[in-house]
Amino acid sequence: MTFPLFSPGDDPGPSFAALLTRVGMDPPVPTHAVEGVTHGTTVVAVRYADGVLMAGDRRATSGNLIAHRAMEKVFPADRYSGVAIAGAAGPAMEMVKLFQLQLEHYEKVEGTHLSLEGKANQLAQMVRSHLPAAMQGMVVVPLFAGYDLRRGAGRLFQYDVTGGRYEETGFATTGSGSLHAGTVIKLGYREGLDRATVIDLAINALFQAADEDSATGGPDLVRGIYPTMATITIDGFTPLTEAEVAEHFRALVDRLSTPESTSTSGAAPTMGDDRS
Amino acid sequence: MSMPFYVPPEQVMKDRAEFARKNIARGRPLVAGSFAGGILLCAENSSGILHKVSEIYDRIAFAGVGRYSEFDSLRIAGIRAADLKGYSYSREDVDARSLSNQYAQILNNVFTHEMKPMEVEILVAEVGAAPAQDEIFRIPYDGSVVDEPMFSALGGEAEAIAERLGSTWNVEADLATALRAAVAALIGTEDRTLGPAELEVAVLERSNGRRAFRRLEDDEVQSLLGQPAS
Questions:
Q1: Calpha distance A39→A213 (Å, rounded)
Q2: What is d(CA A36, CA B203) in angstroms, rounded to the nearest whole number?
């Protein structure tokens, strides 16, 4: 590897992606459709009183098979922001790794943080430059959330496959179970929820998504695998402990298994009794 | 076509070294050294924006004296080299020794082949689990690499400052004691004081998580300097 010293007119600036292109290390673009790619599924982000909560299920699927049971889909992007991914797992993980490096590289070269807006735009550019691969079946659609230190508020962004960037005021979901998860959050969302309530809401959303979507994983009480969750507040990106998530899940399961909620309407239909 | 005058190679090298050394010595000095909690980097710098000390990678810092534009381009090249290496291999594979050798190659190349040598002296430091595992490399304008045990001084009157550090420096000291020793060595026998506004202070902390580099703000420097000796 040669030492990356450039002449002033040829300098890639503070962008790590531009540097990779300059040294010939940018990833190849697939020319044919790729079948059987491992996919990660449902992730959500919800604003609450202190900032933003991000959560994701743990399942990765390959066609009708479960490829991984304990995949992580929520990552810190830097100290005050996080990124959650859905879509083709390999390119998505690579995108997260590059995005994290891109933010840290900028910070070190320039000696100052990017604004939250700048970070969101960077991710939009990465999604857009991934479009050729998305056209070959490797779609990656992330969520981005962070605490905006200049505004003193949590903000969240969702993307489409072309790199379109949409800021949401309340919540955002992406992935195969996003429709169901989004509905649950929509019904329970209010401005300025407290931390415990928003955790319960996100857990309920993931539970219901897993109930309806085969590619979304529910809580795995046997193996002790629960969704990954993290809060992003003025204190930065903080993952929730597994114990705390498990506790909220147990509360939800207890609530759902009371006699009133498992009435006969949900029981298996019986055959007409014609032998009496 | 005019024939250039013959100048013996010894003379060329001597002139270049003289030129570089003279201009580096004009700049303000900096010191770096291991202490109990990490590596302290302390520079005389009246600018709060144009840094002499900065972060390269998780456990590696960079410091430079001399011509700002030259050592700053070396700093950015170092960040790029480190990030590229960490991206293609692993974060653990990025180390100060290999980075210092790359810097040395560049400085040596410029010194022997270019019209003008770089008027810089740089330092690459990597913090380890204990002071004995710390690495501090000083790389002068000609691309030689000096492995400095415990501490190093760069820039104006570096030799005298290093001598003063030698008699006071203690790798078991805490941050406040180390900073006071560094500032005392920078001041020397001159009748002056150095306050937070004239100092740029940063540490590579052993216990700061993945990214060990941390800048000390003026009020923290003030309170560390103000504490009585422990």
A1: 13
A2: 49
Please give the CATH number for the structural domain made up of B9-225. 3.60.20.10
Q: Do B106 and A25 touch (CB under 8 A)?
A: no
Q: Which pair of tokens denotes residue A128?
A: 């857009």
CA dist A108 and A119 (Å) reads 15
Nearest in space to B213 (alpha carbons), one of B99, B58, B84, B90: B58
Contact criterion met (CB < 8 Å) for A5 and B77 = yes
Please write the tens of the pLDDT for every residue from B155-193.
Answer: 888 999 999 999 999 999 999 999 999 999 999 888 888
Among residues A65, A72, A69, A68, the alpha carbon closest in space to that of A36 is found at A65
ipTM > 0.85, yes or no:
yes
State CA B132 to chain mean position distance. 19
CA distance A181 to A174: 9
Task: Give yes or no: A41 in active site.
Answer: yes
The residue assigned the tokens 């009183």 is A49
Task: Identify the DSSP state of B91.
Answer: G
- Shortest CA distance from A19: residue in chain B: B80
Closest Cβ–Cβ partner in A16, A97, A108 for B55: A108
In our burial notation (b when 16+ CB lie closer than 10 A, e otherwise), range B81-95 reads bbbbbbbeeeeeebb
Q: Does A271 touch chain B (CB under 8 A)?
A: no
Q: Which residues touch B200 (CB under 8 Å, ≥6 apart)?
A: B30, B42, B43, B44, B45, B48, B51, B52, B53
B77 and A101 within 8 Å at the Cβ level: the answer is no
**How far apart, in Å, are the Cα atoms of A241 and each of A5, A56, A230?**
43, 14, 9
The first and second tokens of residue B111, run together, are 């010194």
| pLDDT tens-place string over residues B5-52 | 888 989 988 999 999 999 998 889 999 999 999 999 999 998 888 999
What's the sign of the alpha-carbon dihedral A119, A121, A124, A129? negative
71-110 in chain A: CB under 8 A from chain B = 97, 101, 104-105, 108-109
How many CB pairs below 8 A link A and B? Answer: 45
> How far is B48 from A198, CA to CA, in rounded Å?
42
Which backbone phi and psi does A272 adopt, to 5 degrees? -60, 130
Candidates A19, A104, A111; nearest CB to B80: A19
